[in-house]
Amino acid sequence: MTTRQQPIYQIIWGGLLLIAGVGVFFRIPQIMPRVAQIDAFSSAMPFIRFCFYLIGCLLVCGGIMKICKNYRFLMDRNEKDEG
């Protein structure tokens, strides 16, 4: 992988992180009833729900940050190449 292609791959990776985070948000309502049926976890449901939403937020925010950072880097480098 060359250094010219690296920001493109990082943008793609950021997009995948973003999609995974959104997927977590859609999956949480489907998973929580199953988790609540497990006796060991039934008393900790608010904490488990918080953790799942935190993971989703971290994935979405991390993906957005990675996309923005590498997109800006790519645009700055293109301006330097043109100028």
Give the topology.
Elements: H1 6-36, H2 39-42, H3 45-82
Helix pairs in contact: 1-3
- What is the SS-derived class? mainly alpha
Radius of gyration: 19 Å
Q: Mind summarizing the main beta sheet?
A: none
Give the uncertain stretches in residue-range form.
none
Number of strands: 0
Fraction of residues in H or I helices: over 70%
Number of domains: 1
Overall 3D form: rod-shaped
Order of helices and strands: HHH
If helices are DSSP runs of H or I spanning 4 or more residues, what is the number of helices?
A: 3
Structure, described:
With 83 residues, the chain is mainly α. Helix content is 88%, strand content 0%. It contains three helices and no strands. Helix 1 (6-36) packs antiparallel against helix 3. The longest helix is centred in the C-terminal third of the chain and has 38 residues, at 45-82. The chain is rod-shaped and about 65 Å long. The model has no long low-confidence stretch (mean pLDDT 91).
Summarize this structure briefly.
The protein has 83 residues and is mainly alpha-helical. The chain contains three helices and no strands.
Considering the chains and any ligands shown, give keywords for the structure.
single chain, 83 residues, mainly alpha
